[in-house]
Amino acid sequence: MLAVQLKQDSHCTIKDLALQHGVSARTIARDLSLMREQGMQIDADRGRGGGVRLDRNWGVGRMNLAYAEAVDLLISIAVAEQMNSPMFLASLGSVRRQLVASFSPEKRSKVNRLKSRILIGITSSTYVQTGAKPPPKRVVQALHQAFVTQEQLEIRYKREDGEISERRIEPHYLLLKYPIWYVIAYDHLRNSPRVFRCDRIASAKPNGTHFPLLPKEEFGQSLADGDLSVIAQQAPADKPT
């Protein structure tokens, strides 16, 4: 593994690394760039005979997360902070700042845009919670993909009266009314905004058609319902320290 080698060896040149791994110097340079974007401290010595190395202190208390995993973790932290739970939250702000700081400026902007599309409302009533079930994993995965990539989603939706309909929706916002998640979407069947309970989506599949994000004003009452608060407009605390 390249990261392990860079940490153990005090002096590695890109040329030597390319020969050892059987790839081109350009491939090694690209991999090093990706490692820096993930937050690894890669040092380079300039000049003839210079090399690259990984800070020996790197890895202490760190996780090497893929971008999608880091996004999920960051959004989960934002949800937990917004819900104001008194337990185990003392260090979340520090974790969030370090995680955000590990992103490139472009990815940081993308994450902030995603966070601004996740909303927190009032807790669901006991009646609603009694009839709720966790949505199927395949539905959650499809919804996650469509939400992040802004793709239209083909769904089969079961209404409260048991009737099932086929819809083509654009998942613009996600709403948590604990513990129930909702999708605030543009519904092409009704040609208007609609709110769908995630646990009532029987099947879901992105169709590859991308949609532009509509401003919140377009959703009117759908966003106003439930005493909502946006969990993540970019704030000074999100900037690296």
- Note the run of SSEs as H and E: HHHEEHHHEHHEEEEEHE
| Largest beta-sheet details | 7 strands, mixed
Low-pLDDT runs of 5+ residues are 226-241
How far is the first residue's CA from the last residue's CA?
A: 30 Å
**Assembly of the depicted chains:** single chain
On the 0 to 100 scale, the average pLDDT is 77
- Determine the strand fraction and express it as a percent band: 15-25%
Number of separate structural domains:
3
Q: How many helical elements?
A: 9
Q: Tally of extended strands?
A: 9
Write down the overall geometry. Answer: elongated
Please give the share of residues in helix. Answer: 25-40%
Using only CA atoms, what is the Rg?
22 Å
Helix-and-strand structural type? alpha+beta
Task: Write a concise synopsis of the structure shown.
With 241 residues, the chain is an alpha+beta fold.
Could you explain the architecture of this structure?
By secondary structure, this protein is an alpha+beta fold. The chain has three domains: 53 residues, Arc Repressor Mutant, subunit A (Orthogonal Bundle); 58 residues, no CATH class; 103 residues, no CATH class. Strands 3, 4, 5, 6, 7, 8 and 9 form a seven-stranded mixed beta sheet that branches. It has a two-stranded antiparallel sheet with strand order 1-2. Strand 5 and strand 6 form a beta hairpin. Helix 2 packs across helix 3 and helix 4 runs antiparallel to helix 5. It is elongated. The C terminus is likely disordered.
